[in-house]
Amino acid sequence: MASLLTRTGVITLALLATGLLANGVVHAQAPQEIEVQQAIKVALERVPGTVTEVESDRHLGRAVFEVEILSAQGPEYEVTVDAASGEVLEAKLDD
């Protein structure tokens, strides 16, 4: 439990540094290997635009970051990034 609290505290500090938590666009964290900033960078490489929300979640048993991006062309996308490898698993129009 202490390890999880420490990890959550470190993630929270990292999110505050990026300004995302202060703007209310990040939700609960799941265990991961990459930092949220790396997930955002990878997601923006796939879909250029403005990040509107970041969530950590589980997808098919894997820890992932779900990064919502308002694309430069207008529609909003959800990019799923594997939290262990940093690989983009999926990029789709957000419902």
Features:
95 residues, alpha+beta, Nuclear Transport Factor 2, Chain: A, four-stranded antiparallel sheet, 2 helices, 36% strand, disordered N terminus
Describe this structure in words.
- The chain has two helices and four strands.
- The chain is of the alpha+beta class and 95 residues long.
- Residues 1-13 have low confidence and may be disordered.
- It has one domain (2-93): Nuclear Transport Factor 2, Chain: A.
- It has a four-stranded antiparallel sheet with strand order 1-2-3-4, with helices on one face.
Fold topology:
Blueprint: H1 2-18, H2 36-46, E1 49-59, E2 62-71, E3 76-82, E4 88-93
Antiparallel strand pairs: 1-2, 2-3, 3-4
H/I helix tally: 2
- What's the CATH architecture name? Roll
Low-confidence stretches: 1-13
Encode the helix/strand succession as letters.
Answer: HHEEEE
Structural class: alpha+beta
Give the beta-strand count.
4
In total, the number of domains comes to 1
How far do the termini sit from each other?
35 Å
**Strand neighbour order, sheet with most strands:** 1-2-3-4
Strand proportion, as a percent range, falls in 35-45%
Biggest sheet, open or closed, and with what strands and sense?
4 strands, antiparallel
Our Rg estimate from Cα atoms comes to: 13 Å
**Residue-averaged pLDDT:** 78
In quaternary terms, these chains amount to single chain
CATH class designation: Alpha Beta
Q: Remind me, CATH topology?
A: Nuclear Transport Factor 2, Chain: A
Helix content: 25-40%
- What sort of overall outline do the alpha carbons produce when their principal axes are compared? globular
